[in-house]
Amino acid sequence: MVKSMSDFQPKIIALVCNWCTYTAADLAGTSRLGYPANIRMVRMMCTGMIDPKYILKAFLDGADGVFIGGCHPGDCHYINGNLKFRKRMPGMETIIKQFGFDENRLRLRWIGASEGPEFQHHITDFIQTIQEMGPSPAQGLMVL
Amino acid sequence: MSVYAMVKEKSLTEAVKTALTRLLSQDLVDAVLVAAKSPYSALPMPTLVAEASAMDGIDPLAPAAPFNAARQAATVSRQATGKRLALVLRPCEIRALIELVKLNQCTLENVVIIGIECLGRMENEVFLNHAAVHADMAAEFQKNTSLQDDITRTCKMCEQFTPTHADIVMSTLGAPENAVLFASGTETGEALLKELGLPTAENPAGSETVTRQLLEKRAACKKEVFAETSEKINSIEKFEQMIATCLNCYNCRQACPVCYCRECVFLTDVFAARPEALLRRAQKRGAVKLPTDTTMFHLTRLSHIAHSCVGCGQCSSVCPSNIPVADIFTTVAAQVQARYDYVPGRDVGEPIPYLMFEEKQKSGESK
Question: Is this complex's ipTM strictly greater than 0.90?
């Protein structure tokens, strides 16, 4: 369904929390909620452990977008890891923007373990956004 | 109200020496960390002086700083020793030291900070060339405006030349020839200045005008550098052109006063690519440059420390490939710091943004 919009198939890296978004993805799967196959999911123990360099690595290696899924504030398995990651977001946005990546190529969403439909919605929406933006400027570039 | 004292001697350096020697001889401190030249070179190095008789080589007003001495200051103040230390530092060094305190790398307990109102530093080579001609660089630098134009590119755009967080501020701006003005910045500094018994003085009338003019000049330069650099790095392709000659020597990281990790991730197995991984990368992309991860290194360092970048310019000074690392860092750092409304070294009680979080994020920060 999304394919008809454009031939460009974005590659998206999703860094998702083991305790919520990853479980939500599982639920979406068992509930047979479909979404385009453009995401490569990496299961993290918590969004709080996402070092900025994971995001940079994804972009420099040609990812068109990076999606981060964590627990709703207050629901973190480690009490406040998600809030710690949230604090890093403005800095990351500023940095990728300066180097020519649209800051909307990086997205953070809270998706609880029971929110299979929300997972489907957020992923579909993000893929669509990236598809409209086109390929990442690092695409096809020799990155030293 | 600050307490002012003025020391006038045969030369500027003698005037500083008089004051610092009194600190030691009157047992007000146990040691002083101050830039001093060795018998072998005119280049002043951070030196820990414990005896008043060993003050001979000190030269903190010479326009050279081969290190951001915050690192050395943090080394001597890593733990409280029960001894009282005076640290004679430039404003960028104090700001970096404050960041290191927040990062639990050192303590300000029993430490007196003597801040230098700083006119800038030269690159080591430039300084040594001038020093071969002029015996007293500190004095020459004060009166010779052509020498003042030889300071580093980063110093030329520095607006924070007046020290913050200093117990005592040491200044020559607006002071008479061969005189150094001391002003207290804190109660500790005030008490210390009184105990030192130096001749009291008024704040020189001209100093505010001089400071304002310098500030205007620096601000204009900064604006220019930021605009130029921001344009030069606004795409990853342009950034690659800028760092294409990078040797992955990591000197910039070594010189950076706030890049404090004992073991940098770039030296760990995380970035130690195994042969099969390298081959896989080469096959995937057609070719891979070695050593790898040059772009990753610079961007990672930016994302790790941009909020704490004090703009000392040491990263540019140590680059063997003459990459304007400091231009890149200060340009990006200004944006990151504005986003967090954070100024490194402003206040020791102000937490580093990445080390804290809020239950409710401030507007403009939430996604």
Answer: yes
